[in-house]
Amino acid sequence: MTQGIAKSLLEQKHCSDNIQVNNEIENLLFSITTQVQYQLANNSISLTNGLSSDILFLFNVNKFYPSRLPNDLIERLLIALFDKVEDARLDASLADGISGLGWLLDHVGVNDVTDYNDDIDDCLLEILSSENEQHEFDLLYGLVGIGIYGVNRISKPSGSLICQKVFSRLIKYSESHQDKIFWLSSQDSIFFRNDLPSPQADLGLAHGNLGVLGLFIKFYEAGVYTSECKVAINKLVCYLKEQRLADGNISTFSSHSTSEKTSLLGWCYGDLSSSLLLIKAGKLLNQKNIREFGIAIAIKTLKRDVTSESINDGSLCHGAAGIALIYTRLYQETNIQEFQKASLSWANYLIDKSNGGQCLDNLMRKHKTTAEPYSGEGVLIGYPGIGLALLSIIQPEASGWDQFLLLSKN
To answer: Sign of torsion, CA 265 269 272 273?
Structure first.
């Protein structure tokens, strides 16, 4: 009986502590919401670093806290976005171009009545049909990003065709062997690492092979070349297993196939994003070994903390917000409590670093303490991304916005 009372008291204390933490996260979220409205991006329409970032953040905040924003704010920002598009010269990319713009318009429901993305579909299909067109293969600036846009429109013939063409291009550019497949970084690529030996394969999510894995998971879910995707996923997982660092290293993967250095904890590179996508792949394909491989990597990351990682910024890309968000998604995928605790721990770091939202500038510091701080703009390195991560931690239904980052819960 005594043990039962003690357990009940501990559970009540845990519940009370979580409520307090959630209130503190909410207060920081509200401070960021005010800051984003104060410094709306005017430099570009970019999904990752421009006005589209602000719209993505404020639209999702408005779904859960409508009283925090003016009633017509989202409408006014969308009008401003369309005005900017008229004068902009945009590439095809997800980060800065028409794929990202189109993805946002679908996400916020602009196309529910009139589909403004028909022209984007036509343009992307023309680009993908050109034999002379050369592409990066990555998520932010290449084929994977175009595929993310396409799979979001899979119910339309043009969206399905975009996915098919992206898949064919990716397979064409791949290094395929009997039991593995991977993608090498071209020496002409802006993401090629001159300080590393060649040939090299980028193992990250933002610019590398992990992004391809995430896209093929999405394709399989959507029914795009399912048998071919299943084969490719299994072969890519086999390749990733070969890239594991030696036992005793604090991380499982490095950033590149030709590097032996420990990788970051974060969204763009490293074990956290790798583990989440491996868990998703194993669950989707009903392959326990892949899922357990991902879980083992994720559990290993729990040994790494603010001190060991020398985290100095709060960003979604490679800072505390991204780490907190991915632990939340890991918890939602596995129901392993340690991941939820880790998420709240990293969220607490954001609260402490910002002094509860009173010193938001502290969240914009870069890894190198001598470098100029970030401006605060953008999903990847600015306030909108930190805010979206916090929103997802305290509102379990706040998902979908990170589909373009390949993190959203299924």
So the answer is: positive
Burial of 273 (0-12, 13-18, 19+ CB in 10 A): buried
Predicted confidence at residue 18, as pLDDT, reads 66
pLDDT tens across 306-342, in order?
888 878 889 999 999 999 999 999 999 999 999 999 9
Structure pTM? Answer: 0.93
134-180, pLDDT tens digit by residue? Answer: 679 999 999 999 999 999 999 999 999 999 999 999 999 999 988 99
Please state, in angstroms and rounded to a whole number, the distance separating the CA atoms of residues 361 and 383. Answer: 10
Cα separation of 177 and 228, whole Å? 14
What single-letter amino acid sits at 320? A
Gap between the Cα atoms of 357 and 318, Å rounded: 20
Which residue type is seen at 160? Answer: S
Q: What is the pLDDT of residue 134?
A: 67
Cα dist. 218→126, 144, 206, 375, 391 in Å? 23, 11, 16, 33, 24
What number of residues does the chain have? 410
